UniProtKB/TrEMBL annotation:
Protein name in UniProt: Peptidase S59 domain-containing protein
The protein's assembly and partners: Part of the nuclear pore complex (NPC). The NPC has an eight-fold symmetrical structure comprising a central transport channel and two rings, the cytoplasmic and nuclear rings, to which eight filaments are attached. The cytoplasmic filaments have loose ends, while the nuclear filaments are joined in a distal ring, forming a nuclear basket. NPCs are highly dynamic in configuration and composition, and can be devided in 3 subcomplexes, the NUP62 subcomplex, the NUP107-160 subcomplex and the NUP93 subcomplex, containing approximately 30 different nucleoporin proteins.
GO cellular component, one term: nuclear pore
Biased composition (Low complexity): 239-250
Domain Peptidase S59: 12-144
Keyword field contains Transmembrane helix: no
Annotated keywords: mRNA transport, Nuclear pore complex, Nucleus, Protein transport, Translocation, Transport
Length: 924
């Protein structure tokens, strides 16, 4: 049978399959019969949806274009009933269908969900989910015909009526009475000013009647609607003064369930809250302070009493209960309908109105808390004190290196000011030098004393990451001229090191593969040596097997020769070489199994070595725990051909990872540890950044969709607030053109915040200037920089070096003076505030401060010259100042009149002197 007749046929460019047709060809060649058992085969059409066939599917000799057709909101498989195979054969089998719906042509999502449930049930399918954001509708089918949403207007109208009919019936239905009473006089929707009837309608549109038998009223389930006094306790300042109203005994169903809000009914005003400020941070002074927040009770004395507020038992089920949300802060004030919100202050200060969920001994409360949230632990000691010497190495030195690289500038206009956005530009030819410079900085950090073991593991991992970036993305100088890197005998290649050696372009991928092999050997060397050191001399075969996992062939051959095992030493010397040797070993093992050889007479470790040399990795390490880097190396060194490209190796491992046949590329802090504290993590959360880099290299010209996960903190560090090195790695990779993205603002802002928490305001502004320009947010840079200048004014204004650096970055000095003016005004320095308002051009504000706070003091102190200079400056902009004539204009008129009077007096004195002299002359 011809090989071409085995594969499926796909002619339309709009359709796609996973695995692709090319991948099916590769797998069929390496694993004959693969096309008869393709797991989870997918066929789809761009912009319409896809079908994933569950289990193994036989796709041999199938014309996919004739069998599968995607239309608007529907998919047809085997439209011709005469050619449809029995259920379970071909493509007429169980599958998961995903269709992309055009939401513009359909009802609102709240009604559409119920309509999709009914449509799936009517067609014999099982509704799975619907995403109202992208319009993706998922459902399962047992076999195929035509499925989807028929684009007929009458069907849509009928579905809408079917959804609305039970809602109308339910609204006429009286709620049952069970005699329970609560302390609140209204239900939560009514308390928040919402229409309970509308909430009920929304609920019925969101949840299917057949699947939810519980009756819901006012937006709450029936078993949770009637709360007793033990379940809910109201003891707040608002209830103490109005106990008769809040503690009126009435069932919840006595709220406005039937009538809703009648026309003309006055809107219920929210109560004014008396909130207690609980300052529980040691850095904020006293342990407890109280503040009365109600505007209409300013004359009341402040009582130093403990305010419990609204409390809910910790065992109460809440939307954020559970292990995943153990540390979430619940805004109880929002639950009570107040205007206070959780907010962040400078330097990691969190202001919230609750306590931690599931904290022992505490419930949800409306008491206000101000806490210092822990920042990154990169440069902090056990007492959260910053190590200055380490901070310079971790932050300042890499930033200085980044600033020394070549940049391109983009000038943007912001009102009357301009900013120079920056971006690093670099060539792949100079990438090795850049990586080497970053590695030198990291090696200096390793020399710092008192570093924890987990910190050293992360620093060594950063070194390997920069080496991997050099290996995967750098290019060699002088065109095709080869410059040897690493050992000469790696990958079984002996290359000529003479100058002027020109290499064929086809050999360059093999050179990169050799460099990657060297990197992989160096990365796993310490783990191999650590495991070998724990073995006894008698277990030399296991010793050899461990050396092979790190491709230390010379050492493995020497161990076998020293034990007199010459034949094994001869085999080891040829390991990873030609495919013929692997084939001979594989055939020999098959002959032994066919002839019934008793393997009990052969050492188990020796059989594992033979299986590994034959390319059967799974049999060699079936019961052995091995890390993902060494397993990747085993596939590369002993299973795949030695001339296959690096991209195929990485994609093969990724494919096997999806099938669960290879170790998960866990982050280094999980893989190697040790961690200073326990960390919740499960496989599937994220890869190690090294594996992301490999996938990025193997992605070639396609759009890489894992950038956000790749550049998250957890891909390289257990510290969720540490972005100091991945920001540089992202910047360099983008500078050489490895990828391009305008959707990584979270990384920029997180790193800027990390710098701000350490008082490095100038570097934070430097990071903001490197954020890409977006047409839909053209003023984001201005807003961020002005916010940094105003919130952290005390930090940068007292550091001359930072202030000078900010000026060198091209930040308008008017923005700096505006921040200084607000800072001085806050601390009561009206003179300094006025001077800075003048410098930033806020003439109206400067005039107001001058007239209300500065003028009279300066006038009584006889500082007339200063008054004249200030008013003269303001006079040039008097058109922008309201009531100028009744303000500083009076001082201008006064000094002008005084000057003219002084001139007249001087003239009179002069003329008077001449007249007296004339009289004296006449008398004589």
């Amino acid at each position: 049978m011809a090989t071409d007749s085995v594969f499926p046929v796909l002619r339309s460019s709009e359709y796609f399959t996973r695995p692709s047709i090319d991948e099916l060809v590769e797998r069929e060649v390496s694993d004959p019969g693969y096309c008869s058992r393709v797991p989870n085969f997918i066929i789809g059409r761009a912009g319409y949806g896809q079908v994933r066939f569950l289990g193994n599917t036989d796709v041999r000799r199938i014309d996919l274009n004739d069998i599968v057709r995607f239309d608007k909101h529907s998919v047809v498989v085997y439209e011709d009933e005469t050619g449809k195979p029995p259920v379970g054969h071909g493509l007429n089998k169980a599958a998961e269908v995903s269709l992309l719906l055009n939401l513009k042509d359909l009802p609102e999502p709240s009604i559409l969900v119920e309509m999709l449930r009914c449509r799936a049930r009517k067609q014999g399918a099982r509704f799975l989910s619907f995403n109202p954001v992208n319009g993706k509708w998922k459902f399962e089918v047992d076999h195929f015909s035509r499925f989807g949403l028929v684009d007929e207007e009458e069907d849509v109208v009928m579905d809408e009526a079917a959804v609305r009919q039970p809602i109308a019936q339910l609204r006429e239905r009286d709620p049952p009475s069970n005699g329970y009473e609560i302390e609140l006089s209204h239900s939560l929707p009514a308390h928040l000013g919402l229409d309970p009837a509308k909430m009920q309608e929304m609920r019925m549109a969101m949840f299917c009647n057949e699947e939810d038998d519980e009756y819901m009223e006012d937006g709450f389930p029936s078993d949770e609607r009637y709360l007793s006094r033990e379940r809910m306790n109201v003891d707040s300042p608002t209830s103490s003064g109005k106990g008769s109203r809040l503690r009126s005994l009435s069932p919840l169903h006595m709220s406005s369930q039937k009538v809703g809000r009648r026309p003309g009914m006055p809107v219920r005003k929210e109560p004014h809250a008396l909130l207690e400020y609980n300052m529980n941070s040691s850095e904020l002074g006293p342990s407890t302070q109280v503040m009365l927040m109600s505007g209409q009770n300013k004359g009341f004395p402040v009582k130093m009493t403990k305010v419990e507020g609204f409390k809910l038992p910790a065992e109460q089920e809440t939307p954020v209960a559970g292990k995943m949300y153990t540390n979430c802060v619940v805004d109880a004030a929002l639950f009570m309908g107040r205007s206070f919100r959780v907010g962040w202050g400078p330097n990691g200060m969190l202001v919230h109105s609750g306590s931690l969920v599931n904290s022992p001994g505490t419930g949800l409360s409306s008491v206000i808390h101000i806490e210092k949230v822990a920042s990154d632990k990169v440069v902090h000691d056990d007492k959260s004190k910053v190590k200055e010497d380490l901070a310079e190495l971790v932050f300042s030195d890499p930033m200085d290196l980044h600033r020394s690289l070549d940049h391109e500038f983009l000038e943007t206009e912001s009102d009357s000011f301009g900013l120079k956005l920056q971006k690093v530009v670099a060539s792949r030819l100079v990438l090795p030098d850049i990586c080497r410079s970053y590695i030198d900085i990291i090696e200096k950090q390793l020399e710092v004393s008192d570093l924890s073991m987990s910190s050293r593991v992360l620093l060594m991992h950063q070194v390997t990451v920069w080496e991997l970036i050099r290996v995967l993305f750098s290019e060699r100088a002088n065109g095709n001229q080869f410059e040897p890197i690493g050992d000469d005998d790696q990958e079984g290649m002996v290359l000529d090191k003479k100058e002027g050696f020109n290499m064929d372009l086809d050999a360059l991928p093999l050179v990169r593969r050799a460099d990657f092999s060297n990197w992989l050997q160096d990365s796993v060397c310490h783990r191999v040596q650590g495991e070998v050191g724990s073995l006894s001399d008698a277990r030399y075969l296991e010793h050899i097997l461990l050396l092979l996992t790190g491709r230390q062939l010379d050492s493995a051959t020497e161990v076998a020769a020293s034990r007199g095992d010459v034949r094994l030493a001869n085999l080891l010397s040829q390991a990873g070489g030609s495919m013929s040797n692997r084939s001979d070993l594989s055939q020999q093992l098959d002959l032994w199994k066919t002839n019934g050889l008793d393997f009990n007479y052969i050492e188990e470790d020796r059989l594992k070595v033979y299986e590994l040399l034959a390319g059967n990795i799974q049999a060699a390490f079936l019961a052995s725990a091995i890390d993902w880097k060494r397993y990747l190396g085993l596939i590369m060194w002993y299973q795949l051909p030695p001339d296959i490209s690096l991209d195929i190796i990485i994609r093969s491992y990724h494919h096997l990872l999806g099938e669960g046949k290879v170790p998960y590329p866990v982050p280094v802090y999980i893989d190697e540890g040790p961690l200073d504290e326990a960390l919740q993590w499960s496989p599937g959360d994220r890869f190690d950044i090294s594996f992301y880099l490999m996938l990025l290299h193997a992605n070639q010209d396609e759009k890489f969709g894992l950038l956000k996960t790749m550049f998250s903190a957890f891909s390289s560090s257990y510290d969720p607030l540490d972005y100091h090195m991945i920001w540089h790695q992202r910047s360099i990779l983008e500078a050489i053109g490895a990828f391009s993205s305008n959707d990584l603002h979270l990384l920029d802002l997180s790193f800027a915040y990390q710098l701000l928490c350490l008082g490095k305001c100038h570097w934070a502004i430097y990071v903001i200037l490197h954020m890409p320009y977006l047409d839909d947010a053209p003023y984001i840079h201005e807003k961020l920089i002005r916010e940094v200048l105003s919130q952290y004014c005390e930090s940068w204004s007292k550091d001359d070096a930072q202030r000078q650096y900010i000026v060198e970055l091209g930040i308008p000095e008017e923005w700096m003076h505006e921040a200084l003016a607000l800072y001085h005004e806050y601390y009561g320095d009206q003179q300094g505030a006025m001077e800075n308002f003048i410098q930033c051009g806020n003439w109206k504000k400067a005039h107001t401060i001058f007239m209300t706070s500065a003028a009279h003091t300066m006038f009584l102190s006889s500082k007339h010259q200063e008054i004249w200079e200030i008013t003269s400056t303001l006079e040039n902009h008097k058109s922008e100042i309201a009531d100028w004539d009744l303000g500083a204009g009076i001082y201008i008129d006064f000094y002008t009149l005084k000057a003219s009077m002084q001139e007249e007096s001087a003239m009179d004195d002069l003329l008077g002197g001449k007249t007296n002299h004339a009289k004296i002359s006449l008398a004589v």
